[in-house]
Amino acid sequence: MTPIAWMIGLSLVSWTVITIAAAEPINPELLWGMLGPLASAVITWFLVARAHRTAPERVTGVLIAGFAAKIVFFGLYLAVMVRVVELRVVPFAAAFVGYVIALYALEALFLKRLFAGSMHPSPGA
Question: Quick one: three-class SS letters along 1-14?
């Protein structure tokens, strides 16, 4: 399974489990709290894998540029979700922060494996 498939699969499974187990309705906040960080992680991994395949020395630059882009994206995303979509702030913020942390940790694991040579990015990864 590719890193992107793992990120999407684990996010969807966790969203389903949390939705079912929650004592009170937590959607759409949980869903939107997952989608922004997931989109960011998937795009980042796609770009990192492509850079590693074509010019491995560019990976650090891609990660730094990606981090800067994430700061802007997350700022806009949070503003739109809270001000325009009018999601409940506490469940949305908890979901958003949880998914950002979990997906960053997963990306770090994949990067470690990629740099150790035990993972080769697939063409579509």
Answer: CCHHHHHHHHHHHH
Report which of 95, 44, 90 is spatially closest to residue 71, judged by C-alpha positions: 44
Average pLDDT of the residues in 59-78: 96
Counted domains in the chain: 1
Which distant-in-sequence residues (6+ apart) come within 8 Å of 47 by Cβ? 62, 66
Distance, C-alpha 112 to centroid of its chain: 17
The model's pLDDT over 85-100, given as tens digits with 9 standing for 90+, comes to 999 999 999 999 999 9
Q: What is the pTM of this model?
A: 0.88
Does a structural domain hold residue 124?
A: no
In a domain, 123, yes or no: no
